[in-house]
Design brief:
single chain, 187 residues, mainly alpha, 6 helices, 83% helix, 0% strand, Acid_resist_chaperone_HdeD, membrane, DUF308_memb, HdeD family acid-resistance protein, transmembrane helix
Length: 187
């Protein structure tokens, strides 16, 4: 049974790592509300780049899991995150509206992909609804930022922080559940 549990451990650890990153991102924004746009761009770029890499690790870990081949949606979401992170890091001087739109489109795309993944995962995971909630929160944030970019980056930072923290908590919850399940398989 250990051969089945090992890939699940990788998935659980990757999910927890993604959750910790999301919470850290949210806390940084809440602790430093006077943060400048360029710092937000760099922090956002680092966060989504790391999240994308963690997602790819998660995807490769799932390839060896007992459920078989992982969803391509996770890989697509991870590539979108890496592309958004690289764009933010290599183009740090754009205006607040451009930054808002970059983050808005990223949040919308990631949210849609998470919603799709959640519905696909409901056959396999009892906790599929946690991904659905996180995805819907990101869709709502993305739509808000895309439809109201003139409100400025500082106006949505608190919302972004709260959504990131909630999504992080959900990722950690999922990861710990997966690790507990893998531990039972090892026993």
């Amino acid at each position: 049974m250990a051969t089945i549990a090992e890939p699940m451990k990788t998935v659980g650890i990757a999910s927890i790592f993604r959750g910790v990153l999301a919470i850290a991102f949210g806390v940084v924004i809440l602790v430093w509300p006077q943060i400048t746009v360029s710092i937000v761009v760099v922090v956002f770029g680092i966060f989504v780049l790391a999240d994308g890499v963690a997602g790819i690790v998660h995807w490769f870990g799932r390839r060896k899991s007992p459920e078989g081949r992982p969803s391509g949606w996770l890989l697509v979401a991870s590539v979108v995150s890496i592309a958004a992170g690289l764009a933010a890091l290599f183009w740090p001087g754009p205006t607040a509206i451009v930054v808002t739109l970059i983050i808005g489109w990223w949040a919308l795309l990631i949210g849609i992909l998470q919603v799709v993944w959640a519905f696909m995962a409901r056959k396999y995971f009892a906790l599929w609804w946690t991904g659905l909630i996180a995805g819907l929160l990101f869709v709502a944030l993305g739509l808000l930022l895309i439809l109201q970019p003139a409100t400025g980056i500082m106006g949505f930072l608190i919302v972004l922080a709260i959504i990131s923290i909630i999504a992080g908590i959900l990722h950690i919850y999922d990861g710990t559940r997966i690790l507990r399940f893998a531990k039972r398989l090892d026993a």
